[in-house]
Write a structure and sequence with these properties.
The complex is a heterodimer of chains A (450) and B (500).
Chain A (H helix, E strand, L loop, with lengths): L7 H11 L29 H13 L22 H7 L2 H4 L11 H18 L3 E2 L6 H15 L5 E5 L4 H11 L6 E5 L9 H7 L4 E7 L10 H10 L3 E6 L18 E5 L15 E5 L12 E5 L5 E5 L6 H4 L12 H37 L6 E2 L8 E5 L3 H10 L6 E2 L10 E5 L6 H14 L2
Parallel strand pairs in A: 2-3, 2-4, 4-5, 5-6
Antiparallel strand pairs in A: 1-7, 6-7, 8-9, 10-11, 11-13, 12-13
Helix pairs in contact in A: 3-11, 5-11, 6-7, 11-13
Chain B lengths: L43 H4 L17 H12 L22 H7 L2 H4 L11 H18 L3 E3 L5 H18 L6 E5 L5 H8 L3 E5 L9 H7 L4 E7 L11 H10 L3 E6 L18 E4 L19 E3 L11 E5 L2 E5 L16 H37 L4 E2 L9 E4 L10 H10 L6 E2 L9 E3 L7 H20 L1 H6 L11 H6 L7 H4 L1
Parallel strand pairs in B: 2-3, 2-4, 4-5, 5-6
Antiparallel strand pairs in B: 1-7, 6-7, 8-9, 10-11, 11-13, 12-13
The chains are: A alpha/beta (450), B alpha/beta (500).
Chain lengths: 450, 500
């Protein structure tokens, strides 16, 4: 076996040191009833060319993502991934290390995370960011639990119904069984933004936080400033959730708009779609709440000679120290994805992220304009959006199916997620969608709606 | 063995300094190019009102592609990793990560697949996942699998949610979860997140959990026992069957932490030990890279009694077609967006394909041989935490050197000078100054000998040159770091002033 180095000679030499006759001797102490002698019912091992052949066959059963024919966003976004990002991620010194328990020989990972925390804090406009979470959805759930820790006497969290359904479901799963906190959903108004009247009605001394998508599931840019003003008046926290982090290259940061905790899905920052995972949870908050934060944190310090270096810090919040009283059960972060995002953000830099965000605005607005040339197609919400939007399309489900037969994925049929949003498609365009692809989609839609 | 000293000698590599990326670059420099913009000019303000737009990202670097490559390549060289050296972190299973798996996860049909692709256009991905579920069920002896949890700790949380849903469904809201003192911290943290009161069960002086100890804590208020087998001392829980039987008789369930599954493949199945739910750490047993701390993957396997509660969506198979199904009224819901860490799942599947059933069994047996061999080579000088036979890892205490003023930490730091990563230290908590060593099956006898020789040489240094140990490490890019200062005055991001 190529991954296991033991020759028969090695095994015998090691057994001799152990004074054992066979490897079997080493497991003879297991209860007889549990010892398994039949072997595993799995196929025999394969050589490398056979593995490649088998997996390539799986991979080729789908044509994969093609910006020429797919306009899917809705929580996972196709973006350029510079080859340098993947090359750095593949460096074995990063990929095959573990959580930097021994900082003296983990400064590479630690400095990367420190840089990641710096970039994320800046992107989200808050003072402190952690070393990352699993994904945007679980980061949202952790943010909700954190709000409860900060305001333990309060028992409600208000969540915009226009937050991605998957995110709301994950929040609900985390809250089930969590003592003393229940979720109340708030609807949207005719602009597609959080219904401010509903918010005002529900905001009282029982509410620890308000969680809202920025942009929300419709691509619409919520008025975080107004929401946070109302929340603050009621003594509640504002939680901003960004499923598409490229948007933050151009939109005002959640922090400057008054969010107390901001999370985001970082997949757009150099991480392949990979059928939805692994992703990257970005998590930031005001510094006064840092000791309530979940997840790893890297801090700067000095060594014995006074040289600057980095360590894991404020670990007394964490499960390996505090066990059942920890701020979270999270153990690892998504370190390698954090590395990818750090390399991505460095390559794009100050200018690039803004330019990328603006290109997404331009492509998607051109898409919306082109699609509206089809009969009866119009924007569902008259609001600024980032790179995806909801269009009212007569007989949307039938049109979507017809386009699919022609090889076009016309986003998602929104009714599948919101029963009250009939005849709506949620479509997305990024910098990877060419003018030609957008115009062809427009033409096909014009034919499909009639 | 030659004693490493402060002075670099032949074979020592040059460590190049590397500042924060914020200190590199120059105004206006870029490291990217967007695709050609052929979309008609629209005017930004028309699409996006200016009042919604932020100021420039002032803290962001302005660097060229080459600078980025140099920066991160240099940083990478400051890491020890499983690729560069033995990384004997107990409980973490730092085995070789096969390179071909990296290529498989990057096949365009898998890496570029959008998670909302219609099921009929994602049959290959679904089939792969269904196959992986079958393999994990066979290896563990469980009936049904969910691949959704993103990490071991999230698998634990998922498992405890399943247990909670099971009891609620029966109208019995049990309050307590039993956890041995030797358990990972994630166990009590996960149980607490589900609203359970954690009851710690004492571990015996032999390192084992006894049926008697569990019996004294077991009543009808107990929802479950969370148990790791082999446990964190590397011991197979001898009374596991009596323990799980007893819990079942009281109507409680058994959560088995699968962190140490590398010791069991083809040898014994958790499903036969009375486990009702188990999480798999694919980044441990199934060779996916640890990534400096994730992403891993933490699928859960359950017995049929818990299957109705598994997270949605689940894979359904009908008439040769695979689909995602949301129709599970008793499901605990979702634990993350979409379907799990697919890229990691692909790597794990490629590993299982490469190994086959016999290969996995062989891996487990060689992992056990390696741990026993190291234990034997060290046991005359370091004090074993227990004399019970070990499985895939062995644990020593600080008893042999406690009197000298040397701490386990000092030994760990000194090992770095000898070119090895340190074992897990001060865990499990039930062992004084624990040194927990898991070599895994992918290390050669020669490497194990070098490692044992290093630890023996260090034992000698404890007597001969104790100050050397207290000052170590000497050969690393930085010496011991001031962790107290880091926690007392947290600096968690760069500031403009440190840019210059």
């Amino acid at each position: 076996m190529r991954y296991i180095p033991h020759t028969e000679h090695d095994i015998q030499a090691m057994l001799a040191v152990l004074g054992a006759d066979s490897v079997e001797d080493l497991i003879r102490h297991l209860p007889e009833a549990l010892r398994q002698n039949a072997g595993l019912d799995l196929a025999p091992g394969l050589a490398e060319p056979e593995i490649i052949q088998r997996l390539t066959a799986f991979a080729e059963q789908q044509t994969g993502y093609s910006p020429e024919r797919s306009f899917l966003g809705a929580g996972a976004y196709p973006h350029l991934v510079p080859v340098v990002v993947d090359q750095m991620v593949q460096r074995a010194e990063f990929a095959t290390a573990y959580t930097p328990y021994q900082p003296e020989v983990s400064q590479g990972t630690l400095q990367v995370i420190f840089e990641f925390q710096s970039l994320v804090a800046s992107l989200l406009g808050l003072e402190v960011a952690n070393a990352s979470m699993y994904d945007g959805a679980s980061a949202s759930a952790e943010a909700v639990l954190m709000a409860k820790r900060i305001l333990p006497k309060r028992s409600r969290i208000l969540v915009a119904r226009s937050l991605q359904p998957q995110y709301r479901q994950v929040i609900q799963t985390y809250l089930d069984g969590f003592p003393g906190l229940s979720l109340v959903e708030l609807g949207w108004d005719e602009t597609g933004r959080l219904d401010q009247e509903a918010l005002a009605q529900h905001l009282d001394e029982r509410v620890c936080g308000v969680a809202v998508g920025y942009p929300n599931v419709f691509g619409v840019i919520e008025d975080i400033a107004a929401i946070s003003r109302s929340a603050q008046d009621a003594g509640a926290l504002t939680l901003s959730v960004t499923p598409e982090s490229v948007a933050l290259g151009i939109l005002k940061s959640p922090g400057e708009l008054g969010a107390d905790i901001a999370v985001a899905e970082g997949q757009s920052l150099g991480i392949p779609l990979s059928y939805g995972g692994p992703g990257l949870g970005l998590f930031a908050c005001r510094s006064r709440y840092v000791r309530n934060m979940p997840g790893r944190l890297v801090g700067e310090t000095v060594d014995q000679e006074g040289r600057s270096g980095f360590v894991l810090t404020l670990a007394t919040r964490e499960q390996h120290i505090r066990r059942e009283r920890a701020t979270s059960n999270i153990c690892t972060n998504h370190g390698l994805c954090a590395l990818a995002a750090t390399v991505f953000l460095c390559l794009l830099g100050k200018q690039g992220l803004r330019e990328l965000a603006l290109r997404n605005v331009k492509s998607s607005h051109y898409l919306a304009e082109v699609l509206q040339q089809a009969a009866g197609v119009q924007p569902r919400f008259p609001s600024p959006f980032f790179n995806e939007c909801v269009l009212t399309v007569p007989r949307a489900r039938r049109v979507w199916a017809r386009l699919k037969e022609q090889g076009v994925i016309a986003g998602i049929v929104l009714e599948d997620w919101y029963a009250d949003l009939r005849d709506c498609l949620l479509v997305c365009a990024t910098e990877l969608h060419t003018r030609e692809a957008i115009e062809r989609f427009g033409q096909q839609l014009r034919q499909a709606v009639v | 063995m030659k004693t490493p000293t402060r002075t670099p000698g032949p074979g020592k590599r040059t460590m190049l300094n590397e500042p924060l990326i914020s200190a590199r670059g120059s105004v206006g420099r870029v490291g990217y190019a967007l695709p050609r913009d052929d979309i008609p000019e629209r005017g930004q303000a028309r699409d996006l009102p200016v009042e919604l737009c932020r100021e420039a990202l002032d803290d962001f670097p302005e660097v060229s592609e080459g600078e980025v490559v140099r920066h991160f390549t240099r940083l990478s060289q400051w890491n020890m990793s499983a690729a560069t050296t033995l990384y004997p972190l107990g409980s973490c299973t730092m085995k070789y990560n096969p390179v071909v798996n990296e290529y498989m996860a990057r096949l365009p049909g898998l890496a570029q697949l959008h998670p909302l692709t219609p099921d009929d256009q994602a049959q290959g991905a679904l089939m792969l996942l269904a196959e992986l579920e079958r393999c994990l069920a066979e290896i563990s002896g469980m009936d049904a699998i969910s691949l959704q949890p993103a990490a071991g700790a999230q698998g634990e949380l998922t498992g405890m949610k399943l247990i909670r849903a099971y009891h609620q469904d029966r109208g019995t809201a049990r309050k307590k979860v039993l956890i041995p003192a030797s358990a990972h911290g994630t166990n009590p943290a996960s149980a607490a997140l589900c609203g359970y009161d954690v009851v710690q069960v004492a571990t015996g002086s032999d390192g084992m959990l006894s049926a008697d100890a569990v019996a004294t804590c077991t009543d009808t208020e107990v929802a479950a026992l969370m148990v790791t087998n082999p446990n964190t001392l590397g011991l197979f829980e001898r009374e596991i069957l009596q323990i799980t039987d007893m819990l079942h008789q009281h109507g409680a369930l058994v959560y088995m932490d699968g962190a140490n599954l590398n010791a069991l493949m083809g040898v014994a199945k958790p499903g036969h030990m009375g486990a009702d739910v188990i999480q798999f750490n694919l980044h441990k047993t199934f060779s996916t890279p640890h990534g400096g701390g994730g992403p891993g993957a933490g699928p859960v396997g359950v017995k049929n009694i818990l299957a109705p509660y598994l997270p949605i969506p689940r894979i359904a198979h009908k008439n040769d077609t695979y689909t995602w199904s949301d129709t599970a009224p008793k499901s605990i819901g979702r634990v993350r967006s979409f379907y799990g860490n697919f890229g990691i799942l692909v790597r794990a599947y490629a590993y299982i394909l490469a190994m086959g059933g016999d290969g996995l069994t062989h891996a487990t047996r060689m992992a056990i041989l390696n741990a026993n061999y190291l234990r034997k080579r060290l046991e005359s000088v370091y004090t074993l935490a227990t004399h019970e036979p070990c499985m895939h890892e062995c644990v020593f205490s600080d008893r042999s050197f406690q009197q000298t003023g040397i701490k386990t930490l000092d030994i760990a730091k000194r090992l770095l000078d000898y070119g090895f990563y340190a074992p897990t230290i001060y865990f499990p908590l039930v062992v004084s100054g624990a040194l927990m060593i898991e070599p895994t099956e992918t290390e050669t006898k020669e490497t194990l000998d070098e490692f044992a020789d290093a630890l023996l040489a260090i034992a000698q240094e404890i007597t001969d040159q104790p100050d050397l140990l207290k000052q170590a490490p000497f050969t690393t890019p930085v010496s011991r770091l001031d962790e107290t200062r880091a926690a007392r005055r947290p600096v968690l991001r760069w500031s403009r002033s440190s840019d210059s």
